[in-house]
Each structure stands twice: as C-alpha cells, then as structure tokens.
Amino acid sequence: MKNSGLIKWLLISSLVVVGVWDGWRELKAQGADLLPIRYIRIEGVFQYITKDEIKDALLSQVMTGFLNADMHSIRQSLLNLPWIAQVKVKRVWPDAIEIKVYEQYPIARWSTIGLLNEQGDLFTPANLDNFNKLPLLQGPLGQEKKLMEIMKQLQAELATHSMGLAAFEVNERRAWTVLLSNELTLKLGRREPLHQFHQFLSTVPILGKERLATMAVVDLRYSNGFAITQKQGIMQVDLKNSNPPDESTQ
C-alpha cells in the first residue's frame, strides 16, 4: 500500500512538471507579444560613444520580448563596439533589461592601428585624429601588454626628472628608441636598454636643463659613455675607452 501511494504521488508530480514545462515553452513562444520589453536601463559614463550607437546595437536584440531576449547576445553586440570595454546585462522582472556599460579609457596610441587602454588591450575606433597627444607606442603585434608596462615604468622614472615621454618604439631587432616630450631622442639599442636608460637619467642633473634643450639625439648604444647630437647638427662625443655601436645588431 505504501509503495502504491508513492508511485501515485510521483506520477502526479511528473504530470505537474510536464504541464509547467509545456506552459513555459508556450509562454516563451509568444514572449514578444505577451511580455514585451518596455524599459531598457543603461548605466555608464560616456565620453566617446553616443547613445545612438548603443541604440542601434541593441535594436534587433530587444524586439524578441522579455522572455526570449538573449542576455549573452545583448552583451556581445555591445562589446562589438570599439569604445566599450565591459558590459553587464540582467533581466529585471517583469519588463525591463538593465545594462551597465564601461567605456574604454585610452592612455596610448598603438602605431597607426588603434589605441591601448590601461591594461594594454588594443582597440580600434574609427577616428584616431583626436588622440595625437597621447604617447605613441610601437612594437611587434602581440607585445602590447608587455610594452605598455615598460612604457609606464619609463614614464614614472622620467617624471622624477620633470620630463615626459612622447613615443616608445621597439623595432623588429628588439632595439629601443625613446622620444621625450621635449623632442629629445634616446637611442637605447637592444643590449640592456633599460640599463642604458638609467645611465642617461643619472647624467640629467649634470647636463642641466639648458644643455638638454640644445640636444637632438643621445646615442646610448656604446659600452662606456654616449654620443650627443646637437640640434644645430654638431656631434659631441663624451666617451672614454668605448667602441661605437654595431648598427647591424642594434
């Protein structure tokens, strides 16, 4: 008797579950008509992206109704916009979608291709003309994050000497070149370039601001010392027992 009662209860329970599931599928099938999305709440601080761009990206995603709207697809459609870094999407019963948008914050240009955010992620907005004042970073593709960290270190150390960085380039031979904001170029080469950079900084107090202002290029690819090219084209070499750099390897 006990077993027959249990079987009867399980049968009734399964019928109820099937009924609810069938009802849910029917409700989803008519979701756009029965439960339309009436509100889309978008939260975020926008400096570079417009509301129309967000609206156009969402339009096809929210016409399916509240139940049928795909949160993953909504998120991905917004992430496809270059200026959007992160998106959080959730359904809010009974008729709203809540979206939090985090915009990209550019801190450097990457060659002529695009911009880099604080994490060194590359993104490619259509118009780069308004970002010419950002530092320029150039190097092998795929090395953006690594070179961004190096650039931040160079910037921090230059700032202690009231100097700024305009460009940092690593060529195909891994040789470093740094352009300062005062238009002074530092050729650091590929052999211990960070050490060479520190050597230059150690001479900044000795050289003084006035002399630095007359210098166009400092070539630090020597084993002991460095060469200075003045802006008027005169080469002044400050070297002792040093060999010139090997251009084929630098």
Textual characterization of the structure:
It is a single chain. It contains six helices and 13 strands. It is of the alpha/beta class. The protein has two domains: 36-104, membrane protein fhac (Ubiquitin-like (UB roll)), CATH 3.10.20; 106-239, Cell division protein FtsQ/DivIB (Rossmann fold, 3-Layer(aba) Sandwich). The strands form two sheets. It has a ten-stranded mixed beta sheet, with helices on one face. It is elongated and about 80 Å long.
Question: What can be said about this structure in brief?
Answer:
By secondary structure, the chain is of the alpha/beta class. 35% of the residues lie in helices and 27% in strands. The chain folds into two domains: 36-104, membrane protein fhac (Ubiquitin-like (UB roll)); 106-239, Cell division protein FtsQ/DivIB (Rossmann fold), CATH 3.40.50.
Question: What is the topology?
Answer:
Layout: H1 2-29, H2 31-34, E1 39-43, H3 51-59, H4 71-79, E2 84-92, E3 96-103, E4 106-110, E5 114-117, E6 122-123, E7 136-138, H5 144-159, E8 165-170, E9 176-180, E10 185-189, H6 193-213, E11 215-219, E12 225-230, E13 235-239
Parallel strand pairs: 1-3, 4-7, 7-8, 10-11
Antiparallel strand pairs: 2-3, 4-5, 5-6, 8-9, 9-10, 11-12, 12-13
Indicate the multimeric state.
single chain
Number of helices: 6
Order of helices and strands: HHEHHEEEEEEHEEEHEEE
Report the C-alpha radius of gyration, rounded: 30 Å
Query: Which fold name fills CATH's third level, the topology of the largest domain?
Result: Rossmann fold
Termini Cα gap = 92 Å
Largest sheet: 10 strands, mixed
CATH superfamily of the largest domain: Cell division protein FtsQ/DivIB
Strand order of the largest sheet: 6-5-4-7-8-9-10-11-12-13
**Beta-strand percent range:** 25-35%
Please provide the count of β strands: 13
What's the domain count? 2
Structural class of the secondary structure composition? alpha/beta
CATH class of the largest domain: Alpha Beta
Arithmetic mean pLDDT: 83
Helix content: 25-40%
Named at the architecture level, the CATH assignment of the largest domain is: 3-Layer(aba) Sandwich
- Envelope shape: elongated
List segments where confidence is low: pLDDT < 50 over at least 5 consecutive residues. Answer: 13-24
